Amino acid sequence: MGERIEVSLACSECETRNYRTTRKPEQKGQIEKKKFCTTCERHTVHKETK
């Protein structure tokens, strides 16, 4: 019941996968967070990828 799914977060502008995080399986939709992209060298929106 406490199991979580591991997902990667990719930059929405350069598509580089910079971060890994976890989420609950029953969570609806994709995770979106504003994080620092080392390739773009600025804060951008990162979206969940598998």
CATH architecture: Single Sheet
* Overall residue-averaged pLDDT value: 92
Major sheet size, sense and barrel closure = 4 strands, antiparallel
- State the domain count: 1
Shape category: elongated
For the record, what is the CATH homologous superfamily label?
Ribosomal protein L33
Number of strands: 4
Strand portion, in percent?
Answer: over 45%
The helix fraction, in percent, is under 10%
Key features of this structure:
single chain; 50 residues; mainly beta; Rubrerythrin, domain 2; 4-stranded antiparallel β-sheet; 0% helix; elongated
Characterization of this structure:
With 50 residues, the protein is an all-beta fold. It has one domain (5-49): Single Sheet (Rubrerythrin, domain 2), CATH 2.20.28.120. It has no helices and 4 strands. The protein has strands at residues 5-11, 17-23, 32-37, 42-49. The chain has a 4-stranded antiparallel β-sheet, with no helix packed on it. Strand 1 (5-11) and strand 2 form a beta hairpin.
